[in-house]
């Protein structure tokens, strides 16, 4: 694979990372919306299932944020490498 | 929530479940994109041990795994909320099976939401607001009338039979005609429905692209390679 091909492949990877980042930010926002709504509806419930559901949503928001960070840092590193070539 | 009935709670959780299901599908799409990025970085890093490319490969792989975990967490949240709803209003929702891995495939989501009608009812709600849906019905009606005219008793060469025979034949013809008309109308409505759904998908894609463009502008990160 020559330098041009390497750069093109990295560009393709960066585009996928960018698309994934947009999607996962959407996931984070919608999950936060679902959490707010679910918490408001079940706010006086101490039911195990309701609490477990809210906990999963909170974890999902954290994971989604981490995904966006990782896709960004991965693309940054790949871009830096490509610019050195 | 004082003054909120069980019915209200169930209705609100149905909406939440619909949102969670849709979001799980989006999380799976994000996972696909992360895996695509990982594959591209892996391919580009062949023959080099550069630290930067190692970072790109590891980060994109981890991102894919975490996006899958996000989808799984959403799926689990939906299971817990379903169990909660069924505990306060038994038999309200079909129970969801536990997903051993991040499995929020389209089929599963559709199966899960079929009972609730969340996605389908939204689609129907949107379809009702599309002005062209009425045109489709009018069109179907016109064609149905045309077929009726063509197969009706107004033709010149319809032979007359003795009374009892006519009754039997008429009934049979009417049933066949009705069945034909019904099948035709269903086919037409199906085609129209597919068109409307395609138009909705197209609109959603445009909207998503616009949103993407806006977010892309706001991300502040540039990955252009000269």
User: How do the SSEs of chain A run, as a string of H and E?
Assistant: HH
Counting DSSP H or I runs of 4 or more residues, the number of helices of chain B is 6
Count of separate structural domains of chain A: 1
Question: What multimeric state do the chains show?
Answer: heterodimer
What percent of residues of chain B are in strands? under 5%
Q: What percentage of the residues of chain A does DSSP assign to strands (E)? A: under 5%
Radius of gyration of chain B: 28 Å
What sequence of helices (H) and strands (E) makes up the elements of chain B?
HHHHHH
Largest sheet of chain A: none
What spatial form of chain A do the alpha-carbon principal axes imply? rod-shaped
In terms of structural class, how would the helical and strand content of chain B be classed?
Answer: mainly alpha
Helical percent range of chain A?
A: over 70%
The major pleated sheet of chain B works out as: none
Overall geometry of chain B comes to elongated
Measure the end-to-end span of chain A. Answer: 13 Å
Structural class of the secondary elements of chain A?
mainly alpha
How many DSSP helices of chain A?
2
